[in-house]
Design goal:
The structure holds 2 protein chains of 2 kinds. Chain A is α/β, with parallel strands linked by helices. Chain A has one domain (40-231): P-loop containing nucleotide triphosphate hydrolases (Rossmann fold). Helices cover 30% and strands 22% of the residues of chain A. Chain A is built from 7 helices and 9 strands, in the order ααβαβαβαβαβββββα. Chain A has a 9-stranded mixed β-sheet with strand order 3-2-4-5-1-6-7-8-9, with helices on both faces. Chain A is globular, with a radius of gyration of 20 Å. By secondary structure, chain B is α+β, with helices and mostly antiparallel strands. Chain B has 4 domains: 2-35, no CATH class; 64-196, no CATH class; 213-311, 2-Layer Sandwich (Dna Ligase, domain 1); 380-469, no CATH class. Chain B contains 14 helices and 18 strands. Chain B has a 6-stranded antiparallel beta barrel with strand order 13-14-15-16-17-18. A 4-stranded antiparallel β-sheet of chain B has the order 7-10-8-9, with helices on one face. In chain B, strands 1-2 form a two-stranded antiparallel ribbon. The chains are: A alpha/beta, B alpha+beta. The interface between A and B is large, with 57 and 53 residues. Chain A: This is Protein ImuA. Chain A: It comes from Parvularcula dongshanensis. Chain A: InterPro entries: P-loop_NTPase (IPR027417).
């Protein structure tokens, strides 16, 4: 056996050089949501987060949701934005430590998308967040393809522009509309409560859930997403579907 | 300073004091010692002189990339296109002379369109301490005219022959009939005059900074198209990276010099976030700027120079663990597109006030030790804070209603106050920056961060919105 053959054999034995990017889906940790998504969470490709209105609380909910989702995963995160408006301590609170986030301020929309695409193709990230208000069909398809090629989920945060809702004629794996709701509990402190509407899902059905982000009983552990029914102390009972013909 | 020449020991150079006492260059040492009692004679060391001149030449690379030792007692700098870096020709020359004089060297300098003229002016034209003379383009003949014929740099025999003809000044030589000069003194003299008047190009053999690792590509046929330049860059990066591997170095700053057919040299610079010697990565750094190259009639030479390098040892791969691809290439590619300052991380600071609690750090900075742990913080920060109209039941109560950007919000829940102070021990103005923060929820489901800024002197309080919670 020649030397090069020996090296090849050893390489094959330890499996180095044959790594393919494997996708670990970003799971919500709440069974009804994860079960509704093909793959058990947000896997490959582009996932759009649209605020449920022009008001800033809906945008804040999108930011927090993106941070919380990526906080569950391991590895660095690239956050591409035209200008830094989010407040990094909130990301840390959602479980995404600042040492994991690399911000890229791109200014123009085209640059945001180009940088996001570059980051997606890198392949070694936990995820990419891309703040893009205007998104064409072509640009969204490029993001989708880059995410699939790199095996990295892309969370595209679609901000409102001048009171206008983001366009929906785009290619994406899932699209969510996130609306900030009043807190659930009858009284007490303000606490995050959102409506997550899955308005588009490739290989799945559109659905909607009311959720709350709650701290767990043990301090220092990450926040948990709870469905509104469970928050109110009730079990969600699936209603059996009936058809008459 | 003395040196043995053949049988005799001659004075090579005299100090100001010795020269004032009558010691002249070219005298025999015996004569000088006889005329000036107590004269100190040192042996010249040509090798050491050449070595220190070479060191000085490397130092002078700070002004321009083209520097060469000139004879055994001078330096020549080609400042073409480099003077703006020092703030103009006058600033460059005076900076050069001042720095050398501070290093206890007695220097003279001049700047002109001709190497020969600058040489002559520096040696025969100006005083020892004055600022260097600068000859504007076109003023060469006028500047050269009053110089003695010795400034033509001829052999002593030729010099005395000229003087016998009554030609003492260069202006007189230049006015003499050219053909008879050439007949009598050979083409050397007329060539020298032409160079002096900047009518003939003068080649320069610049030194190469010894610590710079470079790759050079000379092209037999000039290239002017993008594909050719990319192919050339590919060869250069491969060659440079091979040299870097041999020395165990990686490159941080990389310059691509390209020389066009018309003699113009231009430079493209690329920076890497961390030392690298991956040819593919280095080529990508130039990807954006390569399109800005104006090849003119063609590029005939390319140099790739590693301006700043750092140690980069081979890395051992750990098998059995995940080996995520390194981040540095990605940081560089993003930086090349959006500008290096726009890729960053954010780290906590000690400050209390929200707008001061973050600082930007480099993309490869070590993780911070501090953490943000002062309670819930909004996902979006309104910076600067915007004033709101507020209705509160009591001065210390959270507001019941507030109006922001023309919209009225009915408050249903509130939490607070959380008192935050600025660094009051630093300045008096900081004392006034004391705020009470309230987290409020509106009927519509929005959660906002309001604060009340107290004005102790006036006894009033004003309200602002500073953030929006998720």
């Amino acid at each position: 056996m020649s030397r090069s053959q020996q090296i090849e054999a050893l390489r094959a034995q330890i499996g180095v050089g044959s790594e393919v990017p494997k996708a670990v889906p970003l799971a919500f940790g709440a069974a009804p949501i994860d079960e509704a998504l093909p793959g058990g969470g947000l896997a490959l490709g582009s996932h759009e987060l649209c605020p449920g209105g022009a008001d800033l609380p809906h945008e804040a909910a999108c930011v927090q949701l993106a941070a919380w989702l990526l906080g569950q995963a391991r590895g660095p995160v690239v956050w591409v934005l035209p200008r830094l408006t989010l407040f990094p301590p909130a990301l840390a609170e959602a479980g995404l430590s600042p040492s994991r986030v690399l911000f890229a301020e791109a200014g123009r929309d085209e640059d945001v998308l180009a940088v996001a695409e570059e980051a997606l193709r890198h392949g070694g990230l936990a995820g990419v967040v891309c703040e893009a208000s205007r998104l064409t069909l072509t640009a969204s398809r490029r993001l989708q393809l880059a995410g699939e090629a790199g095996g990295v989920p892309c969370l595209t945060f679609r901000r409102w522009r001048r009171g206008q809702a983001p366009s929906v004629g785009t290619a994406c794996a899932t699209r969510w509309t996130v609306t900030a709701l009043p807190s659930r509990a009858p009284s007490g402190l303000p606490r995050a409560a959102w409506r997550l509407a899955l308005t588009r899902c490739r290989g799945g059905q559109p659905r909607s859930w009311d959720v709350a982000l709650e701290p767990q009983s043990e301090p220092g552990t990450p926040l948990r997403l709870r469905l509104a029914d469970a928050v109110a102390g009730r079990q969600a009972v699936p209603t059996a579907r009936r058809f008459a013909a | 300073m003395a040196e043995a020449t053949g049988q005799k020991r001659l004075v090579l150079c005299a100090s100001y004091a010795a020269a004032a006492a009558g010691v002249a260059q070219g005298q025999t040492v015996a004569l000088a010692q006889a005329s000036v009692p107590g004269l100190t004679v040192l042996e010249a060391d040509r090798e050491a002189d050449a070595a220190s001149l070479a060191r000085l030449a490397v130092w002078a690379l700070r002004y321009t990339p083209l520097v060469a030792p000139d004879g055994r007692d001078g330096l020549v700098l080609d400042t073409t296109g480099a003077d703006h870096l020092a703030g103009g020709e006058a600033a460059l020359l005076s900076d050069l002379l001042t720095r050398l004089r501070k290093a206890k060297l007695s220097v003279r300098g001049a700047l002109s369109s001709s190497h020969t003229l600058s040489w002559a002016l520096a040696r025969f034209g100006t005083g020892t301490d004055g600022p260097g003379r600068i000859v504007p383009p076109g003023g060469e003949e006028e500047a050269a005219a009053p110089l003695p014929v010795a400034a033509l740099g001829m052999t002593p025999a030729q010099g005395s022959a000229l003087r016998r003809l009554g030609l003492d000044r260069i202006g007189e030589v230049a006015a003499a009939p050219r053909s008879s000069l050439a007949l009598r003194f050979g083409p050397d003299l007329t060539g020298r005059l032409d160079r002096l008047h900047a009518r003939m190009p003068e080649p320069l053999t610049p030194i190469e900074a010894p610590e710079l690792i470079r790759a050079r590509l000379r092209l037999a046929e000039p290239i002017a198209h993008q594909a050719g330049i990319e192919a050339a860059l590919e060869r250069l990066t491969d060659e440079l990276c091979a040299a870097l591997v041999r020395r165990g170095l990686g490159v941080r700053i990389l310059d691509l010099h390209y020389r066009r057919v018309d003699g113009e040299v231009q430079i493209l610079r690329a920076r890497a976030a961390a030392s690298s010697r991956d040819p593919i990565h280095l080529r990508r750094l130039f990807k954006e700027s390569l399109e800005t190259i104006d090849p003119g009639f063609g590029i005939e030479r390319l140099d790739l120079v590693a301006v700043r390098t750092g140690r980069l040892e081979a890395r051992q791969r750990v098998t059995g663990e995940e080996n995520p691809p390194p981040l540095e290439p990605l940081i560089d590619r993003i930086g090349a597109r959006v500008g290096p300052g726009h890729v960053y991380r954010v780290a906590p600071t000690e400050a209390d006030l929200p707008e001061r609690s973050c600082r930007r750090t480099g993309p490869l900075a070590a993780p911070a030790i501090l953490v943000w742990d002062r309670g819930p913080r909004p996902a979006l920060l309104i910076e600067p804070p915007e004033p709101v109209e507020v209705l509160a039941l009591l001065p210390d109560h959270p507001p019941r209603r507030f109006t922001w950007r023309g919209c009225q919000h009915q408050v249903t829940r509130a939490d607070g106050p959380e008192c935050m102070m600025a660094e009051w021990w630093r300045a008096d103005e900081e004392v006034a920056l004391t705020r009470d923060y309230y987290r409020v929820e509106t009927q519509a489901g929005g959660r906002y961060w309001l604060f009340r800024a107290r004005d102790e002197a006036a006894g009033t309080a004003s309200w602002f919105v500073h953030g929006v919670f998720a």
